[in-house]
Every structure is written in structure tokens, then in C-alpha cells.
Amino acid sequence: MDGLSIASGIITLIDATHKVISICQNYKAAVKGADWELPQIIKEVESLRGVLQGLERLAKLAENGDPAAMGQLPQLSRLCDPKTGTLALCLSELQTLERKLIPPGWTGESESKLRTLIQALGWPLKKAFVKETLGNLERFKACLNLDLVTIGVEGTVSLQNTANATQKEVLRVGQNTIDLNVSLCSMRLGIPDSFNSQGLSLRRTSDDHTEKVLRWLSVLDPSIKYNKTLRDRNAKTGKWLLEYEAFFKWKQTPASLLWLFGIPGCGKTILSSTVIKHLLDRRDTDATLMVAYFYIDFSEEKTQIPENMIRSLLKQIYCRSHSAAQELDSLYSDCANGTQQPNLDQLLSVSHRVLDCINDGDIFFVIDALDECKERGELLRLLEGIYEQKHPKLHILVTSRQELDIEESLEAMTNDEARICIQSELVQGDILTYIQDRLETDNSLKRFKRHPKIQEKIRETLTEKADGMFRWVACQLDTFKDCLNPTSLEKALKSLPKTLNETYDRILCGINDKHREYVRKVLYWLTYSERTLNLEEVAEIVALDARKEPRFNPENRFFDSKEILVICPSLVSVYVERSSHGRSSSICVKLAHFSVKEYLTSGDIHKGPASMYAISREIANTSIAESCLALLLHFDKPDSLTYQLEEDFLGYSDRKESLIPRFEREFPLAQYAAEYGVKHACHTSWVGNSTEGLVSELFSKRDTLENWIRLHDPERPWDREPALSRPSTDIVSPIYYASAGGFLKPLEKLIETGADVNAPGGTYGNALQVASYKGHHEVIHLLLDTGADVNAQGGYYGNALQAASHTGHQQIVQILLDVGADVNAQGESYGNALQAASYKGHQQIVQILLDVGADVNAQGGSYGNALQAASYKGHQQIVQILLDIGADVNAQGGFDGNALQAASSMGHQQIVQILLDAGADINAQGGIYGNALQAASREGYLQIVQILLDAGADVNAQGGCYRNALQAASYTGHQQIVQILLNAGADVNAQGGQYGNALQAASSTGHQQIVQILLDAAADVNAQGGFYGNALQAASSIGHQQIVQILLDAEADVNAQGGYYGNALQAALSRGHQEVAQILRDHGAHEDVKNLENDGNKEE
Questions:
Q1: Whole-angstrom Cα distance, residue 1008 to residue 1016?
Q2: Which band of pLDDT confidence, cut at 50, 70 and 90, is reported for residue 23?
Q3: Where are the alpha helices (DSSP H) in 841-941?
Q4: How many Cβ atoms are within 10 Å of 541's Cβ, its own excluded?
Q5: Residue from 262, 288, 264, 259 nearest 275 by CA
Q6: 861 vs 1020: CA distance, rounded Å
Q7: Are 511-615 and 732-822 the same fold in CATH?
Q8: What string of DSSP letters covers 831-868?
Q9: CA neighbor of 1068 nearest in space, from 1041, 1029, 1097, 1095
């Protein structure tokens, strides 16, 4: 392929980037609701365009006959291969993106019409699709960048004796090419983090990067609960634990775990906070100490997800350890620079690496309330996984009740001495301190201050009967607030309830009759709401009653929202929660203790006098759903959300404050109702009850439906900001939303009134596809029976069959096939239904599709074909099924090139063997890594490397991002694999790739032992090529003194010229590594050697 043809192909691709950016700019000007997606797409495509423009300039140099550029034509030609070339894959990805962005009905007319359509239809892309597309574009860009860096640098070196103008142009190509944010290189290929506008500075913009990593690791802030608990406790409590022998031994013993357990309300959270404070105080005088903690809270669902716990702990360590930060930076990069999330195995693996790399001081983890986690089995397995490595510096303290599953799990990790039961005699002193503190500081108990004997009576009685329960004591003190004379107090002391449940019975029975219905509703909400509620939201509940008219009556509101705290004494508590930016705060309300929720939802309450307050999930969800729907139905006019009262504009100096919509101040519960009301309805057996009628009403009233979608579009669950001015034309048909929610009766009524079952629109294209994705069998039958097109194209999955196949809804797949769904219909990310099912591992669906004639070798989609998709994801049985029915084991396509490379890159050893046994070409070229051996070498899969070599893999095969397996393994630091490859005959001095050779690759990433292994194997210490020119410059640029010394001892030429920095001394000085610079000077480095880049700049 000549330079002109290559340049023409690259220009086509650049034109595709222009189109995507132009469309995105129109979306940016016309719609809201894509605040994250649009900037990310524009940034990524612009960055990709920069790479392509560098390639274009190089191709034109070749077209004009430049000898050095013409020497790179074979490499450029490989990039342009229509089947396996990176440029072809990249063009396909951009065209798919452009096709999804172009609104239906636009055929290239004026931009004004384009914007009109955009405003009408809104943002069309699902966040998951955007993330996947960004990841693919980053990978393509990384491959292109690797090629271009190599071409640019090699071209620079080869042009040193040519005309200055040509030299300047090649340098400019190199600089423009690598002036990028190559996030995938950090993600999967390990290229340095970022590049500045002067060229490759390899520096990280640390503050911005750190903030992104911290936000990605965890948004949870355990310090909020820690600080609240410290405020609530008396500083004198918990001293017994700090002086306990078992606690002292826990701190001193390597790889230790301590378990504090006790009955409900015994003060476990207070004790864990006391331990945290003790450790943090120690850290103030010992900077090597690491302390990380986490509170699991029954009222905060996010704290009950096991992976959130480990992410929070890792986040806290990130800020305290440079070596730990490097490990977590690597994980962040592996997850597409934070656009993807790590799985639990990755989190566990990185936690071990983090713990291994901290050698200076002890590490303390404190985890409170294991018993409050919904996914307790997963949590305990995670805890076992962290502990089983026996990291000598790690000390873990956990608290919980003495539940059987927790006890069985922790038994293997602790001895009797390391299990502390919080018995009454241990905490009796703390309880006495707590009582005294409340009597002295609680204003509602101040009447007793003038009566020392009465105070003493209270102390003695409560301490004697507490049985170690702080929670019980707190409730009794609350009831004493109503004792206005000695007689009433004496009566209360003589009739104290014996248990917490009996205490709660009395509290509920004591509620004024006229408040009972409201209290019941509030308890429903606080027990089963989807998120924590603020005080204004809770107070709003009294104004809603779906069974009365009007359903929403503002006149029923309390004068003061704080009245809820008065009528629900001891059952609820409040705390202040600050926003993420810290500029605002709200008063949040929750049940006062986990034991309150247990009591309200247990069978015990039915046996007592407060049975009227018993709560079931069904009853609670029905009540919440009715209240939410009643509020949503109140917004029944086109301007219900945007109409503002005149007083809204008074009293504010900030224009933004003055534009607060009426509903945000007057309807504090509106956002919750919009976001979760229908979800609560789905949690009820609502057919035939009032909830069904309310849902039908919501879907049948167009203005009400549109206002609901403006407040919260269920298609965009990540977008919490209401789009109050969203035009009606941007909101898809009610039939789509009814199908998405699985609301059969409302859907029947819509169809009876003439709704079009094939109306296009929405993320999933049409009602049938969204119902297939969600798994609503009855809805699908209704849609098909009333004329839905089973093969309608469009939407995220392309068609309904692919949607059902991907999500694993086997019965729906069969239903769709029975009515004529095209089993080989092509479209979207997974190409076809078979590839989608193979990727997700739905074996039975794969078999069903094959039985009705699915083409096992159909090409398309991100993974090329079904076999590659299954191989990539490790679905062994599906791989065998596909091979047995005739899948082409060597079919090329997709990002990984072929099935063998896909399996090798992901470490699926058994699948690798199956593919080889089935005749896979072990040296097949293509994909990001070029071949299977390079893929396994790069990812560090030792056994797969050995299998491939034993089966005849060419150890010196060229291609892929690293050009050969040895360089890939050397760069990523897989020492054993490096040795195996050398033993198998790898050419230690093979040239090519970004880093020129294996020695430079290992030197550039600081792998000292590999550097020594390569030198011992006769690596040429002065070999030229690659980005850094030679190994010494690579090691100098990263400041690795030991490698620099090893290379110099091996007679590296200290003044060798070439590479980006010109020479090793310039590399060290440019990066601020003064110690390395001095070592180089001591070995004869010349200060006056000029940097090639600077020469080029001066000539410009």
C-alpha cells in the first residue's frame, strides 16, 4: 500500500471524528442530561483525532518520497488492513457511535433542523454504551499511539543526516502524536500516564489525578459517622477495652484479628469508635501507622455492599502510602482510567498487593457492625480473603452481634482470647458514666439537677437493670423527660421494662391517638425507603393520602417539621449530612437503632400491645408507593413544575438562588417520589388494589407522565438532576415506560385507547425490546398479540432477541423465536443474539439459538464472533458447544483478533488448551497483542505461556503493541515469564515497539531483576531505538538509581545520543532526578551535549 492510499484512509477516519465531534457539539448546545457523557466523548475523540493527524502527516511524507517515512510504510499498511488493522476497527467504532447519535428523521440538512430534532428526542445513549465505546476508543488510540511513537522516534533517528526541514517535520509528528492523554496505555498496555504540551513529560498532574482516583475508589465517608459517634459518647467510656490484655496483644501480634461481640444496644459502635480514636491518636505520633475504618449501617444501603467496604479502606490507605497509591493507580488505569469498575476479585487482589508493599509500620482495619450487612455471606468471604494471606503488619478489629454465621466464620481466624464478649460487668462503668453525663448535660433532664438523691436513685436503678444495654438505658432516660414530679419518676423507676422490645412496646403505646396514623406512615418510610430521607421529606408525608381527596393537602403539614422528633420519641434520630462539595447540609432522619427496625418487622410485635405498628415489606411498600404516586399525580398541568410564585424572586442576592423552582421548595418529597415511587409499586402485589389504579392514572395522563419523566427519567437512573424544561417531544410514549415497568393493566388500557405498540424511541428502541431486556413475560405476550414487530431494529441491543439473549431471559428468547424473530439479525455491540448470549455465558440460550439455525460463524460486534466472545469471558462449556457445531477456531476479527488470543489475554487456561486441541493457529496474527503468546506474556499468565511454547508458539513472533512477547513481559515485570521466553530462544536484542527492545522496556518501568536477567542473557546495553533511544536514558528518566548503576557497570555509553531526551543526563535533569544526574556525571556524562528536541525547537 502506497503513502497516498494510506493517507486517504486516515483522512476518512479523521473525517469520521469531525462528524462525531460536530454532532456532539450540537447535543451539547441543545440538551441537558448528558453532563458526563458529552465532555468525555468529545475529549476522547479529539484526542484520537490528534493521533490520526500525526499519522496523516507521516503518510504524506512517505507520499512525497521521504526515505525515512517510506521505510515505515509496511507498518502503516498493517494499521490499514481492512480486516485486522487498528484503523479499520477504529472507523467501525466511530461509525457505530455516529449512527447512534444521529436522530431519526435527519438526513443531513441544516444544523438548525438537527438541533430541533435533538431537542425533541433528547440524549439517546445509555451510559453503559458510552463507557464501553470510550474504552474501545482508548484502546484503539493506545495501539495507534504505540505504533506512531515507534515510527516517529525511529524516523527521527534515521533522519539525523537529512535536511533540517524534514527533521523538524518528523519531530513535530512525534510531538503532536504523543501529546495525548493515553489512558488505555495505563489501563491495559502500561504506557506512562500523561503527556504535556511540550511533548512527553511523563509527569502526572498529581492533584487532579489523586482526586479522580479517590472519587473513583469510594464516595462513602465513614468519618461522618465516626465524628457523630464521638460527639455522642462520653470521652471517659471505653477505657476498659483499651486497657484489656487481649486488646494489647491484638496490637502487638502480627496478622491478628480481634472480634468484639454482644447483645443489641450494648455499645459496640461506641467501642469501635473509641478504638479508632485511640489508633488515630497514636498515628499522630507515629507517621508509619496506617488506620482505616468502616461502619456498616442498616439505614445506609451503600455501606452494606461488601465491595464498598474494601474500596473505602483502600481509599484511606491511598492517602497515606506512596507505594499503595501506585498499586491503586495501576488498578485505576486497568479500569480504563476510572470509566469501569473493578470486580471483587480485583479488589481482593489489589488489597493484598497494597498490604504487601507497606513495610514501615502496622496497618489497622476497624470494621463495625458486620451483622447489619445484608450480603453477610459475601462480606465474611471477603474478610476471610483479606485475612488468609496473614500479612504480618495487618491487624483487624470487627464488631457484631453473636450471630451463628459470623461466629463460624471468625472462629477459624481467632482464638478464645481474641473473642471479647461485651458483658454487663465489662461495660457497667461505662453505663454509669453515660447516665451521669446525660443527667448533667441533657436539658430535658435538668429538673433533676437540684435533687442529688433522685439523681443517685436514677443511676443506681438504671445501672442495676441495664444488663449491659446502652440502648435500653437511653430509652429509659428519654421517658424520664415526661416525669414532672417525684411521684411520677418513682412510678417510672419501679415499672421499668425488662427488655428492649418491651421498651419499644411502651413507647409506641404511649403515642397520642391522633398521631398514630402519621407515626405508622413515617415508620413505614424509615424502615423501607430506598435512601435516607431528610427532615423536610419526612415531614411532608403527613400531607399525602392517596385514599382521600385532595390526595395532596398542604394544610396538613406541621407548622414545624421538627415535630416528628416529638411525636416519635426514642424511635428516630437525626444527624447533619453535608453535601459532597461541603457548601450545603441537610438534617437527615433515620430509625434510632438497628434494634428498632428488627422489632418493627419481627413476629414479636404481633404478640404485644403495639401490634398495630407491625410492619411488613408489602404493607410498607404499598403505603410508600401510594404516597409517591399521589404526589406525582398532583403535577397534572404542563407548567406544574416550572411555574414560580412571585415571592420566589424575593429575598435572594444570588440570581441562581432566586431561580429555584417552586417544587424544590414547596414539594420537598417530589424528587424521591419521581425516582422511587414506581419502584416501590413494583415491590407490591398491586394488582387489584389502589396502587394499580394510581399507576394506570399516571400513564394515562400525558401531562402528569411528562412531569414525572422531567423530574426523573427511569431511562437515566444516574442523572439525579431534574430536567424541568425538557420538551414534550423529547419524552417517549407512555407505552414504552409501561412496558419497561412491567405494568400490564395500565399497558392494556393504553393499547385499548389506540397507543402504537411499535412506536420508536427510548434507550431500547421500542416497547418490545425494553420489555425483553427487563424480562416481563406477560407484557411481551400482550405486545406481540397486539401487533408488535418482533424484528424491529434500533435501540441499545438492536433488536428484542439480542436484548433477551444478553440478559439471560430464556423463556422470552423462546417466545420471540416462536413468533418469527430473525435469529441471525445483525446489530450493535454484540453483533447478533448468539454472540450476546455467548459473551454473558447463557449456555441454554446459546443452545436454543443454535438449534433454530444461528450462524455460529457470524461476524460482527466488539468480539468478532461468538467463539471469541465466549473465550474472552471464560465460558468453557459454551466454547465447546460452539466448536462442536463447527465454529471456525481461527476466525479473525474483534479487538482480540481471534479466540486463542482472547482466552490467553484473560488467563483462561483450559479454554486455551481446548482451542489448541481444536486446531487453533498458535501463531495467528491480529488483535491488540499481535498473537496469543504476547497476550499471555503481557498479562502474566505463566502456565498459558508454557502451554503455548510447548505447542510451538514462535517465541520471536513480531506484531502487536509490544512487537514481541519478551518485550511485553519485560515491560510489565513478569520475571518468570521473561526467563521462560529466554530459555525458549527469545531474541534478547529483538528490535521494535515503543521501547525498542526488552532491556529498554524493563528499564523504563523499573524492573531491576529483569534488567539483570536480560544483561546476563547478553542484551546489548547500548542498543539504539524506541522512545528513549536506549536503556540508560529510560532508567534515568524514571530516576531508578539501581538500574542506572547496573547499566553503567555493564558499560552503557553514558553519552549515547538519541531518543526523546537526547541523552541520559538530559532525561534525568528533565525529570528532576538530581541523584541520577550526579551518578551519570561521575561516570563522564557531558553537560554540554545538546538535546535533539531542543535543537528542533530552536530551528523552528
A1: 12
A2: confident
A3: 843-851, 866-873, 876-884, 899-906, 909-917, 932-939
A4: 23
A5: 259
A6: 43
A7: no
A8: SSHHHHHHHHT-HHHHHHHHHTT--TT---STTSSHHH
A9: 1041
Single-letter amino acid, residue 869: A
Q: pLDDT band for position 61 (50/70/90)? A: low
pTM for the structure as a whole: 0.69
pLDDT digits (tens, 9 = 90+) for 257-315: 999 998 888 889 999 999 999 999 999 888 889 999 999 998 888 999 999 999 999 99
Cβ neighbours of residue 271 under 8 Å, at least 6 residues apart? 238, 241, 260, 399, 422
Cα 740 to Cα 149, 530, 688, 770, 806: the distances in Å are 48, 20, 20, 6, 16
* Fold category of 209-422 in CATH: Rossmann fold (3.40.50)
pLDDT average, residue stretch 473-484:
90
Distance of alpha carbon 247 from alpha carbon 268, whole angstroms: 15
User: Looking at residue 761, what DSSP letter applies?
Assistant: -
Q: What angle do CA 605, 610, 615 make, to 5 degrees?
A: 55
**What integer pLDDT is reported at residue 1098 of this predicted model?**
34
What is the rounded end-to-end Cα distance, in angstroms, of the chain? 32
> pLDDT tens across 910-945, in order?
999 999 999 999 999 988 889 999 999 998 899 999
718 has a pLDDT exceeding 80: no
Q: What is the pLDDT of residues 529-543, one digit of tens each?
A: 999 999 999 999 999
| DSSP letters for 446-476 | GGGTT-HHHHHHHHHHHHHH-TT-HHHHHHH
777 has pLDDT over 90: yes
Q: Is 800 exposed, middle or buried (CB count within 10 Å of its CB: 0-12, 13-18, 19+)? A: buried
Is the pLDDT reported for residue 1071 higher than 90? no
Specify the range with the lowest mean pLDDT, choosing from 10-14, 192-196, 478-482, 1031-1035.
Answer: 192-196
Task: Tell whether domain 988-1091 is in CATH 1.25.40.20.
Answer: yes
Q: Is the pLDDT of residue 468 over 50?
A: yes
Nearest to 371 by CA among 299, 304, 294, 279: 304
Residue 687's pLDDT band (cuts 50, 70, 90):
low
**Residue 787 confidence (pLDDT):** 96
Residue 66 pLDDT: 61
Q: Could you tell me the CATH superfamily of domain 732-822?
A: Ankyrin repeat-containing domain (1.25.40.20)
User: Higher pLDDT residue, 397 or 584?
Assistant: 397
Residues pairing with 364 in the sheet: 291, 395
Distance of CA 133 to the CA centre of its chain: 16
Amino acid at residue number 444: S
Question: 511-615 — its CATH code?
Answer: 1.10.10
Tell me if the bond preceding 550 is cis, omega within 30° of 0. yes
How far apart, in whole angstroms, are the C-alpha atoms of residue 801 and residue 814?
9
How far apart (Å, rounded) are the C-alpha atoms in residues 511 and 533? Answer: 22
Mention every residue, 6+ apart, whose C-beta is less than 8 A from residue 8: none
Q: How far is CA 1013 from CA 957, 977, 982, in A?
A: 21, 11, 9
pLDDT of residue 447: 86
When mean pLDDT is compared across 148-162, 834-848, 863-877, the lowest value belongs to 148-162
Side by side, the strands of the sheet bearing 290-295 are 290-295, 363-368, 394-400, 256-261, 419-421
For 759, 1007, 1080, 1084, the CA distances from 1087, given in Å and listed in that order, are: 73, 28, 10, 9
Instruction: Give dist(CA 30, CA 33) in Å, integer.
Output: 10
C-alpha cell, 92: 467501525
Q: Which three cell numbers stand for residue 1005?
A: 518501568
Q: Give 589's strand partners.
A: 533, 574
- What 3-state DSSP class applies to 196? strand
- Please report which confidence band the pLDDT of residue 1063 belongs to, taking 50, 70 and 90 as the band edges: very high
Q: Sketch the domain layout of the chain as residue ranges.
A: 3-156, 209-422, 427-496, 511-615, 616-643+660-731, 732-822, 988-1091
